[in-house]
Amino acid sequence: QENSFEQFIINYCNEKLQQIFIELTLKEEQEEYIREGIEWTHIEYFNNAIICDLIENNQTGILAMLDEECLRPGTVTDDTFLEKLNQVCATHQHFESRMSKCSRFLNDTSLPHSCFRIQHYAGKVMYQVEGFVDKNNDLLYRDLSQAMWKASHSLIKALFPEGNPAKINLKRPPTAGSQFKASVATLMKNLQTKNPNYIRCIKPNDKKAAHIFNDALVCHQVRYLGLLENVRVRRAGYAFRQAYEPCLERYKMLCKQTWPHWRGPARTGVEVLFNELEIPEEEFSFGRSKIFIRNPRTLFKLEDLRKQRLEDLATLIEKIYRGWKCRTRFLLMKKSQIVISSWYRRYA
């Protein structure tokens, strides 16, 4: 019920993870249709980049203003930090405080004086500003780092590399918020170089008990995890896509014209294959480099046909092998019989 600086930076990280989820799923999904020349009706979805900018913007972001309050001379308190937020973020549509312009120049009585509220992608969260400045300014000063680096224990020395006299930096140590922001940026950079698969976990109840399903809790999670937009994009688009070459290689045994070898372009081979299987035209589309299949049941049908065809091919191989083996054995026995007969006749 009470959220302070710790929960604020955790929610900031969640916003960044949600942003990369949007970019790697919804945004990339729709951009791929455009790249491949597929007819597509754009699906609107909420992009939380505006919330991330509210928090991390280098000039007007909440973390930047918090650092500015921590570093400026004079009397600095949590209240002066909140006043600064009211001045800079007053018109932001996702920021609310008792005196912000989002409350239409009226005091918002639902907010205490020492709080502000952010409209996150998952819903509104109210933060107590008490302790923000002190927690952000929780620094490990240079002399302490140097003292720990001089320890004889190798592990302690390794934990404080900034205490090495050869690496003395006269700059003020970074604040907790700026360190966390840098760590999140590194995490995002690392994730963007990967091809992640997402598993969304839904809690059926708050009691961690079996056989209890709370409809309201589940619906809330589905909404704030962005699953509704994801489902809308998936249902409006195509469930499966694959480059022509691997698609033809996987399913070419289903068509006599493409099996065992197809000599022409891969796209033409896929067209011949789908025409031979009489798959309805509305179930697939040909992109510039990929085949797009709309419904999962079409893919399941292809997989079932492939499975049956592999069984038939396995039976055919087994039949030919058994025939070859029996014929080889028969010819060997025939040859042996002739040798035995010739020797017997010569003996007789």
UniProtKB/TrEMBL annotation:
Q: Which controlled-vocabulary keywords does the entry list? A: Actin-binding, ATP-binding, Calmodulin-binding, Motor protein, Myosin, Nucleotide-binding, Repeat
The Myosin motor domain extends over: 1-307
Q: Does the keyword Iron apply?
A: no
Which Pfam families is this protein grouped with?
A: Myosin_head (PF00063)
Specify where the region named Actin-binding lies, as residue ranges: 184-206
Q: Which GO terms describe its molecular function?
A: actin filament binding; ATP binding; calmodulin binding; microfilament motor activity
What GO cellular-component annotations does this UniProt entry give? brush border; cytoplasm; microvillus; myosin complex; plasma membrane
The family database entries (PROSITE patterns) matched by this protein are listed as:
MYOSIN_MOTOR (PS51456)
> Which domain of life does the UniProt lineage start with?
Eukaryota
Tell me a GO biological process for this protein: actin filament organization
Would the keyword Nucleus be found if you checked this record's keyword annotation? no
The record's similarity note reads: Belongs to the TRAFAC class myosin-kinesin ATPase superfamily. Myosin family.
The UniProt entry, under PANTHER family, shows: MYOSIN, UNCONVENTIONAL MYOSIN-IB
What name does the UniProt record give this protein? Answer: MYO1B protein
Q: Please give the organism.
A: Lophotis ruficrista
